[in-house]
Amino acid sequence: METRSLVPHQSAAFTLPVASVRSVFRPHDVERKLAKLPNRDHENLRTTYERMLERGPERFQVKPSGLPDMASLYEQLPNFVDALDDVKRHVALSQDSRDGLEVTPMLLLGPPGIGKTHFARKLADLLGTGMNLVPMSSMTAGWLLSGASSQWKGAKPGKVFEALVEGQYANPVIVVDEIDKAAADAQYDPLGALYGLLEHDTAGSFMDEFAEVAIDASQVIWIMTANDERCIPEPILNRMNVFEIEPPSFEAARQIARNLYLAIRAEHGWGERFVPEPASDLLDQLAELAPRDMRRALMTGFGNARLESRDQIAIDDLPKAGASKAKLGFLQ
Prior knowledge:
The chain is of the alpha/beta class. The protein has 13 helices and ten strands. The protein has helices at 27-36, 43-55, 71-76, 81-94, 116-127, 143-146, 159-166, 194-197, 200-203, 234-237, 250-267, 280-286, 291-307, and strands at residues 3-5, 17-23, 58-64, 106-109, 131-135, 173-177, 206-207, 214-215, 221-226, 241-244. The chain has a five-stranded parallel β-sheet, sandwiched between helices. A three-stranded antiparallel β-sheet has the order 1-2-3, with no helix packed on it. 39% of the residues are buried.
């Protein structure tokens, strides 16, 4: 598929992305498929082809213009250092060149609530591209990733097709969340499409079963999350860099809690009614929670403190321990 430059390289502004335009399908292929459709029936397929031609094949392909300042990410995600280092290496390879950004598919392996999906969102923000979340725990058929044949009633394109054809980017971050929870039966394998999609060469001509038009998915940045790698087929594991994400240390958990406090306070107009820094004992209490639970606890704390017309969250403002799930625990 063709790539051409859109925005000149920014040599000094490392935070600005370099954008080019890349074709994710060939319009001629779509026109040929559309011409062969019978006059009646296949209305959904006809609409899909017409939509593809209307939008055109070109999508933004973006990457940082240089090595971005990732210090804040290392601070916000202290237990993702190895994964962040891997991303930094791939960005370094693509900077000062015409090459697109390629990131080896990665698997983030760790307990629930540890921040794996949050990491993916931050990575999408860093790279300047979009993010698409595919929750595998709710996917019971293989066609949800790769589309279902138009011969089936109610068939439609899959998630990869939607991300590339309906989205804005040729290199979106696609997060396959809880890949170990994918339900498979004897007829359909939810992970079947990944065998080709995770290989760069075959992903360049990915065939969605509904549209049956070759799509260039070779630039997709894949992030998988899982709690247990034993449920993932070995051939798929071998196609990814696996990062075991440990619970944060106590001090790291306190820092995560502080960062969340500052972020929530800055994101809301009512945040100015609260003190700029949380109390130390509050951070100690929050550090006992999983990162996912910290935000909910803080929102409850802000609300309770506001009801009492106070500008500081007290420990008693947080949800009671019995009202939430078990603590995650931290590394000693």
